[in-house]
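Example 395.
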Amino acid sequence: MTADAPITQDVMTIPRKLPEGPVNLVGLTRDKLREALLSIGTPEKQAKMRVNQIWQWIYQWGVRDFAEMTNLSKAYRAQLAEHFVIEIPEVVSKQVSADGTRKYLVRIAGGHEVEVVYIPETDRGTLCVSSQVGCTLTCSFCHTGTQKLVRNLTAGEIVGQIMMARDDLDEWPEPGVGTGEAGPRLLSNIVLMGMGEPLYNFDNVRDAMKIAMDGEGISLSRRRITLSTSGVVPEIAKCAEEIGCLLAVSFHATTDEVRDKLVPINKRWNIETLLDALRAYPKLSNSERITFEYVMLKDVNDTDEDARRLVKLIKGIPAKINLIPFNEWPGSPYQRSDWDRIEKFADIIYKAGYASPIRTPRGEDIMAACGQLKSATERARKSRAQIAAEAGLSE
Ligand code: SAH
Ligand code: SF4
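Predicted structure in complex with S-adenosyl-L-homocysteine:
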């Protein structure tokens, strides 16, 4: 810079950091919540206690209004309300299937929409949570894969889906009274199997799951959380170390040739590379076994030969194989395997010593089943022909 360069220029171009409205406390880790509280002048030596108090109100008792946080002074509550909000995604619509499955369409900042599904079973209630709006990957059998990635969800939007469902199920304990541990929970399990590839939104998924697991809040055990990935190999070890939840993998094929077409990320990390990462997972995460998800597609991946190859491939990995009858969606280029074929396939795996449950499709009548999710507002950008062409199929 020359000596006579105009000083004003520098002053004018310094970007001023203006906060874009109040900060949402939902989704902040404990450390970030602490920073936020310090930034409004909370005394350093009170910060830890204030974090605990506010955390408990938000995640243990489901309170959304600072005015209700009665163990904080009125002045402090007013100060919090001035700078912060407690916001979760807004429910746009809710559909209830004949089998009790609930599908919610929720709206997040920017007007985008994602789907969340609650599946009640006799011994548990599972919430299927989304991690992205759309998906960058293009698995040829998946409805979400026809929708381009719009954006990653924030940690607040991910944990907010759990809070939204607890609102709808009316499952927050009475403030100051219960901890919600009294009986079996309506919402007892989380599966990251909604829209998106969770390992491509790693940090936000991790922060949200840490909040869901925190013992002074939603308090779900890490063994009740299952993350499903299409096979983002470099993130698998990180998932074990930093989240420690159970892992499911969208395996779906027994040769690279077929997997390349069904799960195109296989071209980047093939079956062998994926299996190496999976072999290390149970030890790293101290969990028992991996779930291999296998979608049953007629005449594509469902022969006896496939079943035998699958068993050989996973040898030595503690595993359960979850067979998913293909769920059709408008324009899908595949058909579900016949029922007796699925049973035969399951039988071969079972006889080899693995649990091989066939996943009963839930909420099909409301398009809530696996792989059928896609927000109606985000139009399909690909035609049926395009999907088939990309999958290397002729229509
Ligand atoms: N992106 C992650 C998680 C979301 S998909 C993943 O791919 O693993 C959750 C599961 O549903 C995956 O195993 C996925 O392969 C499967 N799936 C997708 N579309 C499907 C469909 N139409 N029918 C049945 N299962 C499907
Ligand atoms: Fe994305 Fe998973 Fe669907 Fe593949 S199966 S397109 S990774 S959401």
